[in-house]
Amino acid sequence: MNEINRTYRTEVIWKPERVTQDFDPEDSCPINLDFVFECIQWRHGDRRRKIIFMVAAAAFVMMLAAVMITYDSVSVSSVGSGFERKRSISWNGGLHNEFSDTQQSFSMGNEDVSAIHPGKTIPLPIIIQNNIADVDEPRRDEDVTYFFHIPRTAGASVKDILGSCAGLTTASDVGARDGHRFDANLTIVLDELGSKYVNVDTSTVDGIARAKKLGLVESGLADVVVTQYLYAGATLFNPERRGRMFTLLRHPVERAVSMFHYLSFATWEPTYDPDLAYISVEMYARSLRIEHNWMVRLLSNELENDLTMHHLELAKEVLRKKCIIGLLEDKSESWDRFERFFRWKFPTRRQRECQERILHWGWSNKHSHPTLEEGSLAWNLLLKRNELDMKLYEYALQLYQEQTALFGEGGSLVP
After folding, report:
1. What pTM was estimated for this model as a whole?
2. Cα–Cα–Cα angle for 305, 307, 313, rounded to 5 degrees
3. At residue 191, what are phi and psi to the nearest 5 degrees?
4. Which residues, including other chains, have CB under 8 Å from residue 274's CB and lie 6 or more apart?
C-alpha cells in the first residue's frame, strides 16, 4: 500500500454561488465587503486609499438615500395566492418579497406548496429510496456505513476515530491526494498516521463519479463512505449493497458561528478567507458569504435555486426514514448509539484511549472562539438566514428522542 501525506483535515465546505430568495437586502451589507476589508487593512500615508474611501462613502450615502425613497414609494398592499404580500423592495436589480408572519409561503414555479399537511408522507427520490436502507430495517452484512458529513459538527473527529482508532478503511477526500486521484485502479493507501483510505475523493461530485466508475462499493474496500453530497453519494450504492446513513447535527446558529471563526484561519480549506478575521459575526451574517439553510439544501438536493417548504419536508423525510441521528450537544450518547449499531470495535487499550481523546478533549480541527449570545442582533440575523435549517433541526431533536426507544432493550436498532 502507498503512503500519502495528510497534513490537514479538510471539511470541504460547500456554499451556493448565486443569491436566492433566502437573501434579504434589508439585512445585507450595503457595500461590497472586499472594500470594507481594504478599509480595515488601511495603512498609514496611503493618500489614494483615502480618496477612494471618501468617494465610496459619498456614493454609499447617495445609494442609501435612493433606497429609502424607493422604499417609501412602494405600495404596502398587494394580495396574491392566499397570502398577503407586505412589500417589495428593489435592490441591485432584483425583487425581494417579505411575507406576513402569520401565513408565510414559498414559491417554486407555479406550484403551490404553502399547505403541507402535518404527517403527510413525502415520496423520496428513487436513488434515496432504493440505495439507502431504512432506519428500522435489519442491518445486513453487505450494507456499507454512509456518513453524511455536516461541516463544523465534529465530522472530522468522526472520520479520525473510525480511521485512526478503529482501523477502518474510509472513502473520503484523503485517499485521492498526492496524485492518487489519477490512479487507474482502486487500492488502499495509508496516511502518515497509518490510517487507511481508498484512493478516491468522495468530497466532490466528480470524485464520486470516478469512484462509481471504478466500482468502489462493489470492491468491498471501503468500510465507511463519507460525503456532504448525499444524493451523488447515494449513486455509489445499490439495493444489494445499501448505504446505512448516519449523521451528527448541531444548532444552525452555533454551527454558523463556528464556521465563521474556522474559515478565518483554516488555510487548507477551499473556502479559507483570511479577511474574516477583520470583521464581526454581525458583518458576516449580513454578507453574501454566509451559508444559508445548508442542511435543507443538501438533504433535498437543491444546491442553488430558491428553497420551498417542499424542500424542508423532503429533508425531514430523509432524516426520518433513512438516517440514524446524532446530536453534537449529546455527543457521548450519540456516539454510543453509532458504535452499537455499526458494531465498531475498540478492543485494545490504545484504541480506547484514542477514541476517548478525540471524542472528548482532543477533537479534530479544534478551535476555541467566543460564543454568541442568544437573542443578540448577530444571533437573530444568522437565525433568519437559516430559518429552514432551524425548523429541520427542531424536527431532528424529536427524531433523536424517538430513536432513543429503538436503541433501548428490544429495540429494532440494537444488533
Report:
1. 0.74
2. 140
3. -90, -175
4. 264, 265
